[in-house]
């Protein structure tokens, strides 16, 4: 899905010229997708658990492909925006089903860790690769093809999915007893749509496609490093250290990388000034993503993975949007308050942003160290004491509530059934 976003960003100038759209209208080409994508994920999770992951995966692929076809054929701005919103709905249905299918297809721990690492790396690869691919498509063909290229891919995915993906026929008794709470889904999704809209609009206040193209090319080292780390390092680290330690190490690498990036001068050199910090960030990013997502998905029963996946992805999307909005506002305020030359003022604003981001990552590192220590103490106490003693761990109680329905009964409707012990096994 990050591939689609980055491709579209590169094509915005061509879209604006062809359809006569203003800068504000072009911003909505991205916003319409982001709002529905972020707002519908949690609402799509529960129906996927109840109705079947393969069935909903195929349904989401149909919706996304239809939206792509409509976007490529759009001759008016309103039709393009509607098609982009439809694409977002399809993507929101796809993501929870993807993680659930990944869990079902790769049951052996080592294979699952490798598959999850590759899945997590695709985000960074798509973000950088989409910039290059989008530029080539617009230059060699025309802007509608950035959407139309999804149509044959979607059709191929539907044909292959029917043969390769595990079926939905065999359902556990717990899954069979599950039900949909339509009022809860409607109200919860509506609230999320409003929240995601506010966050997305705040994060997309400026539109600069040319800067986006150069920025995309600049993150290619991050994408390559992310891919290598996800394939070779993260699965081994998960097996030896566990997700909490991997998450904590990732926050440390990200904090150090961001701190180095904050030291770049105005006339920074790509190799000596930018690349070291970018590569450290590339090492930390997949470790943080996998270390925070994998435990949540593995800590619940199979028939609950979709709703938890939707919850985790929604939280990550909202958090990323809020972070971009706050840091961008900080940079803009500092830049506007500066009385020096424009380049120097802009540089100081971004320097402050990198420092603030490094401070956030450092805070995450501190929390991670605390959790690792708490986890080791809980394991030791568990070996010496009873399960009742372990149940008094506040972190485990919080996680157990999250995975057993404490987050929102309107979405989960799951009775407590011993998942505290499951959370203990997976997270510690």
Main traits of this protein?
single chain, 428 residues, mainly alpha, Growth Hormone, Chain: A, 83% helix, disordered C terminus
First CA to last CA: what distance? 31 Å
- Number of separate helices: 18
Poorly predicted runs = 385-428
The first-level CATH class of the domain at 1-218 is given as Mainly Alpha
* Fourth-level CATH superfamily of the domain at 1-218: MFS general substrate transporter like domains
Find the count of extended strands (DSSP E, 2+ residues). 0
- Helix content, binned percent: over 70%
Shape: globular
What would you report as the Rg, rounded to the nearest angstrom? 22 Å
Question: Could you characterize what this model shows?
Answer:
It is a single chain. The two termini are 31 Å apart. By secondary structure, the protein is an all-alpha fold. The chain has helices spanning 2-19, 23-51, 53-73, 77-105, 109-140, 145-148, 150-164, 173-177, 182-203, 209-218, 220-241, 243-261, 270-298, 305-337, 342-384, 387-390, 394-404, 419-427. The model is unreliable at 385-428 (pLDDT under 50).
């Amino acid at each position: 899905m990050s591939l689609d976003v980055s491709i579209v960003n590169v094509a915005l100038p061509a879209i604006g010229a062809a359809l006569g759209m203003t800068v504000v209208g072009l911003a909505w080409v991205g916003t319409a997708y982001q709002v529905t994508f972020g707002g519908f994920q949690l609402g799509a999770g529960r129906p996927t658990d109840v109705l079947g992951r393969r069935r909903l995966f195929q349904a989401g692929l149909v919706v996304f492909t239809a939206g792509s076809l409509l976007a490529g054929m759009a001759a008016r701005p309103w039709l393009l925006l509607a098609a982009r919103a439809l694409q977002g709905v399809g993507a929101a249905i796809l993501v929870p089903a993807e993680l659930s299918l990944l869990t079902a297809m790769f049951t052996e721990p080592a294979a699952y860790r490798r598959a999850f690492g590759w899945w997590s790396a695709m985000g960074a690869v798509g973000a950088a690769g989409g910039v290059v691919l989008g530029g080539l498509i617009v230059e060699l063909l025309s802007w509608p093809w950035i959407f139309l290229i999804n149509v044959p891919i979607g059709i191929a995915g539907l044909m292959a999915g029917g043969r390769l993906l595990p079926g939905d026929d065999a359902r556990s008794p717990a899954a069979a007893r599950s039900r949909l709470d339509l009022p809860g889904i409607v109200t919860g999704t509506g609230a999320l749509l409003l929240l995601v809209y506010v966050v997305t609009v705040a994060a997309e206040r400026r539109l600069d496609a040319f800067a986006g193209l150069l920025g995309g090319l600049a993150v290619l080292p991050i994408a390559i490093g992310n891919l290598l780390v996800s394939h070779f390092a993260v699965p081994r680290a998960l097996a030896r250290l566990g997700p909490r330690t991997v998450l904590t190490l990732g926050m440390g690498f990200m904090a150090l990388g961001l701190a180095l990036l904050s030291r770049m001068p105005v006339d920074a050199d790509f190799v000596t000034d930018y690349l070291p910090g970018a590569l450290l960030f590339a090492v930390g990013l997949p470790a943080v993503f996998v270390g925070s997502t994998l435990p949540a998905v593995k800590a619940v029963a199979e028939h609950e993975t979709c709703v938890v996946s939707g919850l985790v992805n929604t939280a990550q999307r909202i958090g990323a949007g809020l972070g971009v909005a706050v840091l961008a506002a900080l940079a803009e305020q500092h830049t506007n308050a500066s009385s020096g030359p424009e380049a120097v003022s802009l540089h100081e604003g971004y320097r402050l942003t990198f420092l603030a981001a490094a401070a956030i990552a450092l805070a995450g590192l501190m929390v991670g160290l605390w959790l690792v220590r708490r986890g080791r103490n809980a394991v030791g106490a568990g070996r010496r004491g009873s399960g009742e003693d372990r149940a008094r761990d506040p972190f485990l109680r919080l996680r157990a509530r999250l995975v057993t329905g404490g987050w929102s009964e309107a979405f989960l409707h799951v009775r407590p059934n011993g998942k505290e012990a499951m959370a203990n096994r997976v997270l510690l």
